[in-house]
Structures are given as structure tokens and as C-alpha cells.
């Protein structure tokens, strides 16, 4: 396993719609392993392939946060939201591609998602709480959408400017 570099907003790859996975290759398994390692190391609870510059519809997540609880690393390929609750929930979201910036985002409180697993089988599960927010945030990444796209333009521009400055500083360092 190897850690991958996480792209920082603004980057055109983060605004691009990713391609469906058509075949489960060893390369894809390695990518999933690397992404999980990168996510846990960050630390984060979700990571989508475009965030490491791979334009495939694959995401990893693990929203188990309680100390002592077993981790639940999940790999979802070609995920599709098949049902959303009418009830909405607001979470303060962050993103590994937009470090240290947080904002409230409202999304359906529960979603049902279908996806292709690394086992080659089709899976379906209903998510709520943090898992529901996380899976919707990560699926957005596969469609070139970031959580700041839900914010008012002024707030979004402010965050984008901060990230441009951060990238300039990183490039100089
Ligand atoms: Zn994100």
C-alpha cells in the first residue's frame, strides 16, 4: 500500500465528472487500498478517486468514529443514490481537498445507495447520520461537485481564495 497525494481545490480534475468502472482490475484494488491508507492517514472519513487524480467512479469511506469500535472500511464503485428521505439534516462538512475549511451543508438525512463492490457483486444499503452525509459528499466528488458549491457565492469565493493562497505557499515551500 502507498499513500497518494490529495489534490487541493482549485484543480480542474476536482470539477470533472469521473468515468464508470467497467472492470475490476488489480490496479483498481491497489487504488482502493492506497485511498483507504491515504484517508486514514489524513485523517478523514471519506475519499473519492478524483481527489487523488484518478477519474474513476470509486470512493472509500469509514465513518466509525467511536474509540474502541471496529473500523468499517468501505469501497464503493459506480455508486448511485436510489432513494432519499424527505427529512433533511445539516452537518458541518469539511473536505480533504479543501483543508481546514468547514461549513454547514443541508442534505437528505437518509439515503439508499447501490454500488458495485470489489467482490464484483452489486450492493445496496441505507445510510443515515454521518454516513449519509459522507456518502453524498463523496458521490458529489464523482460528479465534479464540492461541498462549497452548496454555499453562497461570496463564501465560496472566500474559501477558494484561501486555497489559492495555500497552494502558492505550498509551491514555494
Ligand atoms: Zn471532499
UniProtKB/TrEMBL annotation:
<feature type="active site">
    <location>
        <position position="138"/>
    </location>
</feature>
<feature type="binding site">
    <location>
        <position position="141"/>
    </location>
    <ligand>
        <name>Fe cation</name>
    </ligand>
</feature>
<dbReference type="GO" id="GO:0046872">
    <property type="term" value="F:metal ion binding"/>
</dbReference>
<feature type="binding site">
    <location>
        <position position="137"/>
    </location>
    <ligand>
        <name>Fe cation</name>
    </ligand>
</feature>
<keyword id="KW-0648">Protein biosynthesis</keyword>
<comment type="function">
    <text>Removes the formyl group from the N-terminal Met of newly synthesized proteins. Requires at least a dipeptide for an efficient rate of reaction. N-terminal L-methionine is a prerequisite for activity but the enzyme has broad specificity at other positions.</text>
</comment>
<dbReference type="Pfam" id="PF01327">
    <property type="entry name" value="Pep_deformylase"/>
</dbReference>
<feature type="binding site">
    <location>
        <position position="95"/>
    </location>
    <ligand>
        <name>Fe cation</name>
    </ligand>
</feature>
<dbReference type="InterPro" id="IPR036821">
    <property type="entry name" value="Peptide_deformylase_sf"/>
</dbReference>
<comment type="similarity">
    <text>Belongs to the polypeptide deformylase family.</text>
</comment>
<keyword id="KW-0408">Iron</keyword>
<dbReference type="GO" id="GO:0042586">
    <property type="term" value="F:peptide deformylase activity"/>
</dbReference>
<protein>
    <recommendedName>
        <fullName>Peptide deformylase</fullName>
        <ecNumber>3.5.1.88</ecNumber>
    </recommendedName>
</protein>
<dbReference type="GO" id="GO:0006412">
    <property type="term" value="P:translation"/>
</dbReference>
<dbReference type="InterPro" id="IPR023635">
    <property type="entry name" value="Peptide_deformylase"/>
</dbReference>
<keyword id="KW-0378">Hydrolase</keyword>
<keyword id="KW-0479">Metal-binding</keyword>
